[in-house]
Amino acid sequence: MELPSLHLAPIMVALAEELALFAGVGFALFAIDDLIVDLFYGARRLWRGAAVYSRFPRAFATTLDPPAGPGWMAVFIPAWDESAVIAPMLRETLIRFGPGDYRLFVGHYPNDPATALAIASVADPRIVTVAVPHPGPTTKADCLNKLYIALIAEEGRRGPARAVVLHDAEDVVHASELGLFAALIGRAAAIQLPVVPLPDPTSPWIAGHYCDEFAESHGKELVVREAVGAAIPLAGVACAIERGALSRLAEGHGGRPFATDSMTEDYEIGLRLGALGLKTMFVRIPATPGDRAAIASRSHFPATLDAAVRQKARWIGGIAFAGWDRLGWGVGLGERWMRMRDRRGPLAALLMVSGYGAAILWAQLSLAQALGAPIEASIGPRLMLLLKLNFVLLLWRMLVRARSRPPPTARGRGCCRSRGCSSPI
Fold this sequence. Notes:
two-stranded parallel sheet
């Protein structure tokens, strides 16, 4: 008597092949999309080498013209439950920035006294402590808006600021970034510098993947994004927003420039500024002639699986779903192309589920066939051709990722394992 389960074998074979085709076609389209970015980036480098650097000297932060107008720099640092790192970060930031016309606005919450005490332990007139009037944690945007109110009060005493720089409580800033921002902010409403994730030797797979991701994103993709005329999304750290542009954002949102109802307010700021017709820039530039490393900020990223999953879920939800609803698709082919790339995360997850489902089904069917079951689990010619194409594209992607190494700032003298690492860049 034939086993009833064998009647399902043809259905399982067909299902496995359809799932594999769906995943394979999706992966191929994504890989071709990435390949176009690679080719665009390579062509741009060749063109700049032949048409720009052959006629003009390369720029360095120390050779830029000084700021054209007056104004001081404001640095916003929101802090919740950061008592272990905020004091070392503030001390190191003051040392790196050195003397100058700037203020560090540090926000904390009334139900987080340990962080408040840590901030108070760094006695320096350049630190402006801002107590959020309600208990935390709230969104980062809510804290930033309170810092913006404090900035307005400080401007009443010191005059208008030139720009607002965003940083987190775990960042290792670059000594030259404020001078670079001051020199360039008149050319754009927002400037984003590269962000280099700090490697965590205890978490090579989780924390390490951020190094890989940002090396390609801040080494290539943002360059292409600017080249095709799309707005630059901000990373929330190592970025500066021109003071007048921040006021324009505030005017359109009830005096609050940072969107408290967004999960990814930093990403949205750059796109919102672009929608206003303002220029955004991604800047990779060494500090002095002879430097191989670009001016960049080093930052800590999650090193545990649950923290990384929460962060990625917030990014996907805020960019792919909420961003689609809040920001739309923008204007221009380049802008729409880049927003499509930003929002392909949920589809990529669906493709992954389909691919794993197909692999599990093929494994079961192949095992049953090897054990003598009358099942034909061979791969059809269409699927085989698709698998070969994806394999070639995968090899190309691995080669590109291997070449997209972090800049020398991330491979220098290393860092300590503490969250408050302040090793030299």
